[in-house]
Amino acid sequence: MPTIAIDGPAAAGKGTLSRRIAELYGFHHLDTGLTYRATAKALLDGGLPLDDEAVAVEVARNLDLSGLDRAVLSAHEIGEAASKIAVMPAVRRALVEAQRAFALRQPGTVLDGRDIGTVVCPDATVKLFVTASPEVRARRRYDEIIANGGKADYDAVYEDVRRRDERDMGRADSPLRPAENAHLLDTSEMSIEAAFLAAKSIVDAAL
Ligand code: C5P
Asked: Using one digit for the tens of pLDDT, what is the confidence trace for 137-149?
């Protein structure tokens, strides 16, 4: 069964793109960032330490993939905590195991994250690496917060995007990088619709 791997940095637009691609082909979709966020939230909610690998692994192993909801996992502190526990190899192993099991679902799957094409599903049917400049990604994230009625400061959002990139690209285990055979899609100058059409034509050609 086909597996579509979509990777890229924070706020590159891969979430929206992945959901629409999954819908188009009738495939199951897993936003793997939510698995790291849900693990982090469970630790925060339980008052548990973020730097104890054994504790974090236990939480990761007991994660239920069916109830993941970005709306309850979107808080800034959760994203920060997620990227901290995501540097722990044993936490990654536990979550990757669950992600690989998900990738086997019929009739096909779309997984998005940072290491899908390189580590989770190296044999994916098609791999996309979705990027945009840090300035454009910060602007999109800022607009989204304002549109949802929140308050934000562009410089702080930009700094946040930059720090997250640094941590995701710089970690030793499964750093964010395009797989060798990934199709690069830079959405800096594209509307969501244009990015969707570009992704669709790449996927269509591969299926
Ligand atoms: O995608 P999102 O920003 O929600 O992911 C939160 C954090 O989880 C990321 O900053 C990254 O550190 C981590 N992550 C990861 N591998 C993935 C997906 C997310 O390390 N496949």
From this structure: 999 999 999 998 9
Which atom from ligand 1 is nearest to the alpha carbon of 11?
3
Residues in the chain, overall count: 207
Q: Which domains does the chain have, with CATH numbers?
A: 3-206 (3.40.50.300)
Q: Indicate left, alpha or beta for 130 from its phi (over 0: left) and psi (-120 to 50: alpha).
A: beta
Provide the pairing of β-strand 183-186 with 28-31.
unpaired
Q: Tokens 């941590």 sit at which residue?
A: 167
Å from CA of 87 to ligand 1 middle: 10
Q: Which structure tokens are listed for 61? A: 């192993």
> Is this structure's pTM higher than 0.90?
yes
**Reported ipTM:** 0.98
